[in-house]
Amino acid sequence: MKRQLSVLVGTAATALFTTFGAGTAAYAQPAQADPVTVAATCNGNTCSGKDPNATGCSAGARVLADMVVPGYASKEFLVRLSYSPTCNASWTDIQAINQPDCYGGENIWHEAVNNSTGAVTRTARVYDGDACSAYTVMMSRVGRSTRACSTSAWTGGNYCTPWK
Questions:
Q1: What are the φ/ψ torsions at residue 10 (nearest 5 degrees)?
Q2: Each residue of 5-48: pLDDT tens digit?
Q3: At a CB cut-off of 8 Å and minimum separation 6, what does 47 contact?
């Protein structure tokens, strides 16, 4: 009898714990909302010269090309040609790979070539300083190919991804 009572009490406690949880109220939790995404505020030519994050173009962006650029000593930077299909625009971004202190930053810029005329335009250089990362403003890809470029603080050489 003692064993049956013990099993009965244990089963009841398990049922209560399962139903109400440990110290929680007996009501359903609200459903989690989907993350809010910022709608892109530009497209194509209207994106040129604008910030990819502020315009919502960085959401859903993909990398078209990347390269590793040498920094001081054995430090390295990953330079990427980022592209937003939603905005039809691209930009250059840089991220320190193995730099705990981020000393010795790089200069980056973004270039576009007009596919009809061959004319090349570029953004102003952006120096990442000691921030470990940076990005340029966007350039439209309407009728253009673009590439990401960087100057190595270590070698002094210029590096660019292939035109995409």
A1: -60, -45
A2: 344 444 444 443 344 444 333 333 333 334 445 689 999 999 99
A3: 55, 57, 84, 87, 88, 89, 138, 139, 140
End-to-end CA distance of the chain: 80
Domain regions of the chain by residue span? 44-160
Of the candidates 104, 40, 110, the one whose C-alpha atom is nearest the C-alpha of residue 74 is: 104
| Residue 123 to residue 68: CA distance in whole angstroms | 20
Give the containing element (helix H, strand E) for 127.
Answer: strand 126-127
User: Considering the entire predicted model, what is its pTM?
Assistant: 0.73
How many angstroms from the chain centroid is the CA of residue 149? 18
Chain centre distance of CA 21: 39
Tens of pLDDT, residue by residue over 71-128, are 877 788 899 999 999 999 999 999 888 776 666 668 899 999 999 999 999 998 887 6
Quote the strand ranges of 13-119, DSSP E: 62-70, 76-84, 89-96, 107-114
Which residues are within 8 A (CB) of 110 and not within 5 positions of it... i.e. 6 or more apart? 90, 91, 92, 122, 123, 136, 137, 138, 139, 146, 147, 148, 149
